[in-house]
Amino acid sequence: MWANETALLGSYVLSIGGIIGIMGGLLKNFMFWLPIGIYGLIFGIILVILEYPRGRKNKGNTAERRFQSCTATLLTKLPFVDNYYFRAIAYFIVCIPSAIIVPTLLGSVFVIIGSGIYLGAACHNEKWAPVSARTEVRSQSADVTQPPSRPPPRLPQNVNNPNQI
């Protein structure tokens, strides 16, 4: 869950840094920014698509993101997406070239941190699973308790003299 949030934030920052790298690459002094800016923008957009759907928690009480079902169906059909070892290694390797220039550096650092969190989750044998729709509805009437029918017990000294402290 935390790896997903970190990698998604990193992909947003990487996409914005890629746009800034492309704009800076149009200047004569920063022409070497252009290919890395394009790379950062493309990788950031692909990463947004891969990281947008949240995975199901072990308890199963995960809140879906808006329009998550569209990309979740795509991810269930792709191989190696549910494997966190693959995600951790792939994100780390693919993010290294975008750490060369300043505009994409912060986004790539976020994605590398997210890949480290994915590696930790993979060591705990976690896997990505899509969020399933809730079929059972909890009734609130079963949780309501009745008020007590008897007053709470009083100590004997307070019963005889209520003014005594």
UniProtKB/TrEMBL annotation:
The keyword Membrane applies. Keywords: Cell membrane, Membrane, Transmembrane, Transmembrane helix. It is found in: Cell membrane. Its main location: membrane. The chain crosses the membrane at residues 7-26, 32-50, 88-121. GO terms for molecular function: heme binding. Residues 137-165 are annotated as: Disordered. One of its GO terms (cellular component) is plasma membrane. Pfam families: Cytochrom_B558a (PF05038). Component of the phagocyte NADPH oxidase core complex/cytochrome b558 complex, composed of CYBB (heavy chain (beta)) and CYBA (light chain (alpha)). Component of the phagocyte NADPH oxidase complex composed of an obligatory core heterodimer formed by the membrane proteins CYBA and CYBB and the cytosolic regulatory subunits NCF1/p47-phox, NCF2/p67-phox, NCF4/p40-phox and the small GTPase RAC1 or RAC2. Interacts with NCF1 (via SH3 domain). Interacts with SH3PXD2A. Interacts with DUOX1, DUOX2 and TPO. Interacts with NOX4; this interaction mediates superoxide generation. Belongs to the p22phox family. This is Cytochrome b-245 light chain. It comes from Ciona savignyi.
